[in-house]
Amino acid sequence: VLDSQYGTYVWPCAVVLAQYLWAHRRSLPGKRVLEIGAGVSLPGVVAARCGAQVILSDSEELPRCLQSCRSTCLMNRLPHVPVLGLTWGRVSPDLLSLAPIDIILGSDVFFDPKDFEDILTTIYFLLEKNPHAQFWTTYQVRSADWSIEALLYKWNLKSTHVPLHSFGADKEHLASSSMPGRHTIEMMIISLAHSEGT
What pTM was estimated for this model as a whole? Predict the structure, then answer.
């Protein structure tokens, strides 16, 4: 049984998202990046090592996850990377005072369906403040019944599927895991669905 604070584990989705960042490393210097639900922060660390200005975040209710973010930064010689407690679906002073961002990262944040709307509420808030930003996210297919399509429509968001083979992440060893079972990983980019005429 996994610890309830599963942000202390490197999930296969984090490796796939890190691979996407590495494949796009030349576009990252100077980009302002926020990782949500960062946990051990592999994607955020890769982005920072590639020259992005990164902020890491996890739930303010999970101090062990926030400490994990800080520890990962220190181990990777990134002591300047800020770590914020941002809880999905909750407007906080830290969320309101965030500097402009270009890219939001989230690996395996679509884990529990009860959190899906809170996640997309937060993403919508961030994209409204940063209309040209994008949410780069990887997720593990856990159930054919889980979908965020209706929530994307509700929050005026659109998604673009990113094929794993397009960035060399379709190799089974890349997202291998000590957890039992096969892991089907998908990636999408979520952005604002602008209304016609804008």
Answer: 0.88
